[in-house]
Write a structure and sequence with these properties.
Elements lengths: L1 E5 L3 H12 L3 E5 L3 H8 L10 H10 L3 E4 L2 H6 L3 E4 L15 H13 L4 E5 L7 H12 L5 E5 L9 H6 L4 E5 L3 H10 L9 E4 L1 H32 L3 H9 L20 H14 L5 H24 L8 E5 L14 H11 L3 E5 L4 H7 L4 E2 L3 H5 L4 E4 L11 H7 L4 E4 L6 H6 L3 E3 L6
Parallel strand pairs: 1-2, 1-4, 2-3, 4-5, 5-6, 7-8, 9-10, 9-12, 10-11, 12-13, 13-14
Antiparallel strand pairs: 6-7
């Protein structure tokens, strides 16, 4: 099957490489000529474990190609995926669909024969209807079926998520697309891929509802963590106690500094705006958004309190800048708000992250960067763990204590046991636990 992926960013590149690995003939298209040239040269613009090898193997096998030539790629395709960005629109929080609409027009201008056009980008309910309207207005003769097929990829584990999914949601209003989409995903399983066919609007809402529910779970356990600190309970044991209930489950019940990344912040906000447009407000999600936004700066204040209430003139080492480990994604990372709170209070911040340094330099001003955790800790009055990278899970406390000005650790991810850190002579503060 010939597949064209419009957009060679995170979703488009991972999806395209995985489809190619299934044996399909895939062309990834992007208007950014520099990005395409870099991909042709084997340079991957994002950090995702295993992606560089997967791309290289499928390019070498002749199943994966990169180009800026949209017309040719579309004309030759059986399926065209739209995998362009849908960032929050400035001013109102709605999803910016300009890239999706632009892609729809270009596809319509160049489509040849019956073609399934699939929206892979995360889009609000009703976008598929608008994409179809745009395409039919642009080219009334186009023989197309517009489908919704949202992605459920976790950054840092995207390849495994694509190849071993919990479910594949396909929303369609034209039954001709069912067989095409089934064939596209058929290589996933020997017997039958976990395909869930719905209407197009239902599929679009499933994506937003999924992310909103997970964001709600994170925010819930974070509020429980605050309560645990007040009453003398342990949030990790609370999470385990409720997570063992099969109706609740253990995932996304890890207390921390709040959620970030490319999906949860913009998708929860877009769902709130969509619900308001339809006069059906989602109060729980509205509260989730507000609580999460406030929490990030509250974590900065937590650091200040742990250092004695005043950080003016003090040196604070921040370990971890990306919103989660195994990615270089800095979008809406809690580290940004934590650092801003510290610098606003007069602290000198030096930071280190295994993969996010280049992106961090573009987003965070007025701080210094180190090339490893121990360099960051030199002369520091406190070290703050914001992202739970593996290399921060077994720090040499004796070495840290030697290079730091004061042995103070604030662990916003609870990766250490309080007694373990105290044994090394550190003042230790974590989240939702008596320290």
């Amino acid at each position: 099957m010939k597949i064209t992926m419009i957009g060679s960013g995170y979703v488009g590149l991972v999806s395209g490489a995985c489809f190619a690995d299934f044996g399909h003939d895939v062309t990834c298209v992007d208007k950014d000529a520099d990005k395409i040239e870099a991909l042709k040269a084997g340079r991957i613009p994002i950090f995702e474990p295993g992606l560089d090898g997967l791309v290289a193997a499928n390019v070498a096998a002749g199943r994966l190609a990169f180009t800026t030539d949209i017309p040719t790629s579309v004309r030759e395709a059986d399926v065209v995926f739209i995998a362009v960005g849908t960032p929050s629109r400035r001013g109102d929080g709605h999803a910016d669909l300009s890239y999706v609409h632009g892609a729809a027009r270009e596809i319509a201008e160049n489509v040849s024969g019956f073609t399934v056009v699939v929206t892979k980008s995360t889009v609000p309910v009703g976008t598929g209807d608008e994409v179809e309207r745009i395409m039919r207005e642009t080219n009334p003769q186009a023989d197309i079926a517009v489908v919704s097929n949202p992605e459920f990829l976790r950054e840092g584990a995207a390849i495994d998520d694509f190849k071993r999914p919990d479910r594949i949601v396909v929303g369609l209003d034209d039954e001709r697309a069912r067989a095409v989409m089934t064939e596209a995903y058929r290589p996933l399983y020997l017997n039958q891929a976990p395909l869930l066919f719905t209407t197009r609007r239902t599929s679009e809402l499933i994506k937003y509802a999924s992310n909103a529910f997970l964001a709600l779970k994170i925010t819930f356990i974070n509020e429980m963590a605050d309560l645990c600190e007040k009453v003398g309970a342990n949030v990790q044991e609370v999470a385990r106690g409720i997570g063992l209930d099969g109706r609740i489950g253990p995932k996304f019940l890890h207390a921390g500094p709040g959620y970030g990344g490319s999906c949860f912040p913009k998708d929860t906000l877009a769902l709130v705006k969509t619900a308001q447009d339809y006069d059906s407000p989602v109060r729980l999600i509205e509260t989730t958004v507000a609580v999460n936004d406030n929490r990030k700066r509250a974590m900065g204040r937590k650091v200040i309190h742990a250092v004695g209430g005043d950080v003016r003139g003090k040196r604070i080492a921040v370990l971890g800048l990306t919103f989660k480990p195994n990615t270089d994604d800095m979008r809406d990372s809690p580290a940004i708000a934590v650092i801003q709170t510290l610098t606003d209070a007069g602290a000198a911040v030096i930071a280190y992250d295994p993969e996010g340094m280049d992106n961090a330099r573009k987003l965070i001003e007025g701080i210094d960067f180190a090339d490893n955790a121990y360099r960051a800790a030199e002369g520091a009055d406190a070290v703050v763990i914001v992202t739970e990278w593996n290399q921060f899970r077994a720090l040499d406390f004796a070495r840290l204590k030697t290079v730091m000005n004061a042995p103070v650790m604030i662990d916003l991810r609870n990766i250490y046991r309080p007694d373990e850190v105290a044994r090394h002579g550190f003042s230790y503060t974590s989240v939702g636990r008596a320290d």
